[in-house]
Design a protein that fits this description.
2 domains, alpha/beta, 8 helices
């Protein structure tokens, strides 16, 4: 059995709960032993920024998303190492050289997720973020880093592709 190693961008967790058939998708994700979802500290930290006052139905959205994150990643947490941080900075440097306009503070977490996926040789990055993580200048920066560092380029896909597979 081939294993597919995956990381979800923070925005995917929020988009997932807004799906009508969320429970079916979640259950199938949890039961598919060939599709392994990894967690990453900066993603969990971004979930903390959701205000406690925001509700999903009668539930606290932040706690609900933490629960989903913890269930889907099941203790498979990747570390934010110096190597990941250094690669993140390199991606940002190439991004700026390509004319990227977002500042470090805005785009750092997106590039951290990509750098983490590259360092850990993940197969897929799932994101719905076309403005920052998937813009043309960012993609060029990833490809340049992959080439220079002799890394494997992951597949980028959005939640719709995951829904097709697990719905």
């Amino acid at each position: 059995m081939d294993i597919t190693r995956v990381i979800f961008d923070t925005n995917v967790y929020g988009a997932l709960i807004n799906e009508n058939n969320y429970l079916i998708i979640k259950t199938r994700l949890l039961n598919d032993k060939s599709f392994i979802i990894y967690g990453f500290g900066p993603i969990r930290k971004e979930l903390r920024y959701i205000p406690k006052s925001i509700k999903f139905g009668n539930k606290n959205t932040r706690l609900f998303l933490f629960n989903i994150y913890d269930n889907l990643t099941k203790g498979r947490e990747l570390n934010n190492t110096k190597e990941v941080e250094d690669l993140t900075k390199k991606i940002y440097l190439f991004y700026k050289e390509n004319g990227g306009i977002r500042n470090w503070k805005i785009i750092r977490n997106d590039f951290l997720i990509v750098a983490c996926a590259l360092i850990n040789n993940l197969d897929i990055i799932v994101t719905n973020d076309k403005r920052t993580m998937l813009n043309d200048k960012a993609i060029k920066a990833y490809k340049k880093v992959v080439e220079e560092e002799n890394l494997r380029y992951p597949l980028f896909c959005n939640l719709n592709k995951i829904k097709i597979r697990f719905n």
